[in-house]
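2024-03-11 09:14:02 DEBUG pipeline.ingest accepted 1 chain
2024-03-11 09:14:02 DEBUG pipeline.ingest length=291
2024-03-11 09:14:03 DEBUG pipeline.predict start
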Amino acid sequence: MDPRLLSLTPDEAFHILEKDRARLKMRLQELQQLKREVRDSTKGKVPVLVPEVPLVFRGHTQKGREVAKSFVSNLRVCCPLPGGSALVTFDDPKVAQQVLQQKEHKIDMEECRLRVQVQPLELPMVTTIQVSSQRTGQSVLVSGIPAGLKLSEEELLDKLEIFFGKAKNGGGDVETRELLQGSVMLGFAKEEVAQNLCQIGQFRVPLGGQQVSLKVFPYLSGEIQKTEVRFQPVPRSVLVLNIPDVLDGPELHDILEIHFQKPTRGGGEVEALTVVPPGQRGLAVFTSESG
C-alpha cells in the first residue's frame, strides 16, 4: 500500500488514487501517440539494396560538346570523357593493373613521341535507394501488356480506356491515363471504380486482334527520399589523358591499340578502345557484363 494513504481519511485517499490513475492514463496516451508517430514516419519507406553488378565498357560512346557530369540509369552507367582522352578496356583485369603501374606512357611514332598519362576509372554507383510510397485510391495499374502488340501508344491507351470505361466490365469514367514500362496507369473519377477493378483482378481484353489476359492492381505512387552513392572501380578499363591533337582519329586509334597490346608495355588483348579528340567531349556507356 502507498504509505501516503495510511494517515488519510477514505475520501482523501480516494482522491489521491484518482489523481494517480488520471496521470497514468495520460502517460499511456502519450506513449500510444509516440508509437503511432514512429510507425507513420517509417510507413511506405522501403530501403532498396542495389546488388553489385560488374560493369564493362563495350565501345559505345555518345559525342557532343556539352555532357552531364555523370548519371545513373536503370540499365547503364554513363561516364563523361574529356577531349584529348581515350578509354581502353582489356580482356584481362590484370593487364589493366599492369598498365596502371606506369603512370606515364611514351608512345613512339615515326616523327615524334607521345607522352600520355593513364589513371584508373571509377564510376558512381547507387548502393541504396529509400522510396516513400503511397496508394492512390482512384488509380489502378494494368499490367501484363505484351510487347509485340501492333498498336501505337495512343491506340493502346484508347482501347484500354474504352474497355475499363464500360460499367459492364466493372469500370467507369477514366480521367487520366499513362503508359509505363509494360503497364498502364488509369485514373478514374470515382474511387469505388478503382477498388472494384482491383477486387476483380483479372480481365480478358481485346487488343491488336487477340484476347490478352491483363491484371489490375492498386496503383502506388513513389518518391525517392534518399540515395547513397559510392564510387566503384572498373577493373578492366583505364583512362588515357593528355593526348595531343597530332593525328586523325582512326590513325590515333590504331597507334594506341598497338601500344596497349604490347606485353613489353605491360599491355595485353584490348577488347574496346575509343578516342575523344581535343575540343570534343564523349560519353562512355557501361553496361552489365551479362548484358
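2024-03-11 09:14:41 DEBUG pipeline.report The mean pLDDT is 79.
2024-03-11 09:14:41 DEBUG pipeline.predict end
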